[in-house]
């Protein structure tokens, strides 16, 4: 028997059917087929995410931790999906909210380079070893190139960064 969702519920867990409230942490599968609009799967916990793995038999998958939208953002998204003349404008408002540039403190400064791949390439190309300081330096170069590509895509009025937005140095 289906239960009615409360007004504080954003979605239900795809595994245990527990309510996921607005603004709560939830998990999504990294595999694109689990995230399509028709089959979107949402999980309240890691054990619930792990319970779906034997059923779908992914070759390689991981749980992505996400945060459910706030109620007002969710209502704007639903209004945009409902259609009508204001739908396109509502979608742009939601997209603009998502694209709002976070403060520099909010942007993670993780290493963006796969160390094993870089070291293997340098070893194969030259026989040399690679210092760990190369990873941070290359990550900075990649961040700068991405920032420039983002600016180019925005200047073209696109919401997608494409290969043509990157220019060789």
Walk me through this protein's architecture.
This protein is mainly alpha-helical. It contains five helices and four strands; from the N terminus they run βββαβαααα. The protein has helices at residues 46-56, 71-82, 87-99, 115-126, 133-155; strands at 9-12, 19-21, 25-29, 63-67. The strands form two sheets. It has a two-stranded antiparallel sheet with strand order 1-2. The chain has a two-stranded antiparallel sheet with strand order 3-4. Helix 2 (71-82) runs antiparallel to helix 3. The longest helix has 23 residues, at 133-155. 7% of the residues are buried.
Summarize the structure.
This protein has 169 residues and is mostly helical. It has helices spanning 46-56, 71-82, 87-99, 115-126, 133-155; strands spanning 9-12, 19-21, 25-29, 63-67.
Offer a few descriptive terms:
two-stranded antiparallel sheet, 169 residues, mainly alpha, 42% helix, extended
Level of helix content? 40-55%
Spatial sequence of strands, sheet with the most strands = 1-2
Name the poorly predicted regions: none
Q: What order do the helices and strands follow? A: EEEHEHHHH
The largest β sheet comes out as:
2 strands, antiparallel
Number of strands: 4
What portion of the residues fall into strands of 2 or more residues?
5-15%
Query: What general outline do the C-alpha atoms trace?
Result: extended
């Amino acid at each position: 028997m289906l239960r009615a969702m409360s007004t504080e519920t954003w979605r239900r867990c795809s595994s245990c059917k527990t309510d996921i409230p607005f603004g709560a942490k939830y998990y999504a599968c990294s595999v694109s087929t689990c995230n399509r609009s028709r089959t979107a799967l949402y999980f309240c916990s890691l054990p619930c995410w792990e319970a779906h793995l034997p059923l779908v038999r992914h070759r390689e998958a991981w749980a992505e931790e996400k945060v459910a939208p706030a109620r007002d953002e969710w209502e704007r998204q639903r209004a945009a999906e409902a259609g009508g003349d204001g739908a396109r404008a509502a979608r742009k408002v939601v997209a603009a909210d998502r694209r709002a540039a976070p403060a520099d403190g909010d942007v993670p400064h993780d290493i963006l380079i796969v160390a094993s791949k870089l070291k293997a390439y340098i070893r194969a190309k030259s026989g040399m070893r690679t210092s760990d300081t190369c990873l941070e330096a290359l990550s900075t170069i990649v961040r700068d190139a991405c920032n420039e590509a983002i600016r180019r895509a925005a200047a073209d009025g696109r919401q997608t960064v494409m290969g043509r937005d990157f220019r060789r140095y």
